[in-house]
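Trying the structure run again after the queue cleared.
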Amino acid sequence: MAFDFAQIPYQSIVVPYNDEKTPLDLCGVKMLPIVKTEKDAMNESLDIIQHYCNNKIDQPSAERLAEVTALTDKLGKSIHNLAMPYFIWTPEFDDDSRKYFQDKKEKKRGPFKELMKKKDEFVLELTPQLEILEKDLTPFYKSSNLALEDIMIAAHLWALFIVPEFQFSPKIYQYLMDVKKITGFEYHKDYME
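Done. Tokens:
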């Protein structure tokens, strides 16, 4: 989202989830995304965006960044519990990486079968958080212009599109469609070319 919005040219290379060697060789830690240039490699989404898009995307104050990080952390817990069992069926997974991902995530979150049984509970946790967020969309997060905060929030919310039973409110759905249009975002662009 950030690179497309900032009109920064890049080539996307999908690294299988079970490929530990590539990220470890490039950055010393298994974390994606990674931006590799001729000189170095960098991971951690926010650091990448702030480094490469600093003058092309409105950057929040440290206080506002902490506020949005707290918001996305809170949203992320319920969102990931809802979406995690569905992630493994998206195009970036093959049988080996699917098993690796599921084994790894189930150690932290519990069996995916149990997460599926609790989906109503996760939606109940998420609903008041989304209602609060909705009040802050004017039409973007506390702003009339798209900024880094919106990319952070939209990146988390987008995962809910994979959960068949989940429905966004019309306002949040429109917010995500506006972010998508402005940034040129396409979730599985790598598999559509």
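The chain has two domains: 2-52, 62-191. Worth checking whether this holds up in the mutant runs.
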